[in-house]
Design brief:
- The protein is an alpha+beta fold.
- A four-stranded antiparallel β-sheet has the order 1-2-3-4.
- The radius of gyration is 28 Å and the shape is flat.
- The N and C termini lie far apart (86 Å).
Length: 139
């Protein structure tokens, strides 16, 4: 048996499904929101010699939920549900030396290959395309 969290409001035993799902989502959002701090985005600084590095991450989370109540002849019922998700990915780091602070992004390994290759392809193919269009117009 788990003990209730004293920082969260108690859930009354007689709540219906709609109220229970709302209360659950509020409690989840409260717990995750309390953990979303500056250190979650900007990690703890690491210092070596005269260089300090601060990791940087992009963090996001979201929640959703719903509840329903059906009434009618012999069709009475309630239902509710919810869910959430979170993501975190490293973006780069801030490097602080004696007098300067520099942000250095973390890029994928193909970023240095794809951009120059795409530029080269465009430089080769665009003039050919222009010549082909010009020849068709002259006919």
């Amino acid at each position: 048996m788990t003990t209730p969290d004293p920082t969260q409001p108690a859930v009354p035993a007689n709540t219906n499904a709609a109220n229970a799902s709302v209360t659950l989502l509020e409690r989840l959002a409260g717990k995750l929101g309390a953990r979303a701090s500056v250190t979650a985005v900007y990690g703890e600084p690491v210092t070596r010699g005269n260089v300090t590095v601060i990791p940087v991450a992009a963090i996001g989370f979201g929640f959703g939920g719903g509840a329903g109540h059906e009434t009618g002849t012999a069709k009475t019922g309630e239902g509710g549900g919810g869910g959430g998700g979170a993501t975190a990915r490293p973006c780069g780091f801030i490097e602080i030396t004696d007098d300067t602070a520099t942000y250095k992004p973390i890029r994928g390994p193909w970023a240095d290959v794809i951009a120059p290759l795409a530029t080269l392809m465009a430089a080769v193919l665009v003039p050919r395309l222009v010549r082909r269009i010009a020849r068709r117009r002259m006919r």
